[in-house]
Design a protein that fits this description.
alpha+beta; 10 strands; Membrane-bound Lytic Murein Transglycosylase D, Chain A; 2 domains; Alpha-Beta Plaits; elongated; about 180 residues
Length: about 180
């Protein structure tokens, strides 16, 4: 008897396999060299029987888990957490009138975690803070003052200075107050 998720399966044969992937580069003499070894996920092959009046529903549940990628736990002779079903095959014959023979292939997976956390909205609106209107800042024009000099000193763009003051670029009247902020 074994459990796959919440389904009981009568297991007749259980195989497990572990493997790696290694790169291989030919060299002029000797054996090829490798510079990378990667572990492959463990895989399990199960052969057994789904028995009882719910065998058809159990088989459909396992197929649904396979299609949706549901993460299951397998407990039999081997114990495997975080497995997904890669393949499931079923057959019926005269030897088992109230059940179905199944063969299932499982793969162990690792679940990636992320530091991102979803912020829950409590339904309350946050108050909107509005900036009070800024009081205008003025500059008294002296001989040689230009919009460019006001931009350098106060940081306000030249098109904004032109829009506020309506004076031509080369003819700023001396003694006039220019709005600069």
């Amino acid at each position: 008897m074994a459990r796959l998720g919440n389904i009981t399966v009568l297991i007749e044969k259980e195989d497990d396999s572990s493997s790696i992937e290694a790169t291989s580069y030919p060299v002029e003499k000797g054996i090829p060299m490798t510079d990378h070894v990667e572990q492959k996920p463990d895989e399990f092959s199960l052969s057994g029987v789904l028995n009882g009046p719910t065998h058809a529903a159990d088989y459909e549940y396992l197929k649904k888990c396979m299609r949706s990628g549901t993460i299951l736990t397998y407990v039999g002779r081997n114990i495997a957490k975080n497995v997904i079903i890669l393949d499931i095959n079923g057959s019926v014959d005269a030897n088992n009138a109230n059940g179905k023979d199944v063969s299932i292939k499982l793969r162990q997976i690792r679940i990636a975690s992320t530091p991102w956390v979803k912020v829950q909205n409590n339904g309350k609106k946050k108050p909107v803070t509005t900036k009070p209107p800024a009081t205008p800042v003025y500059h008294l024009v002296k001989k040689g003052d230009t919009y460019w000099m006001c931009w350098k000193r106060y940081g306000t763009s030249i098109p904004q200075l032109r829009a506020w003051n309506k004076y031509p670029d080369r003819r700023l009247p001396i003694g006039v107050k220019l709005r600069v902020k």
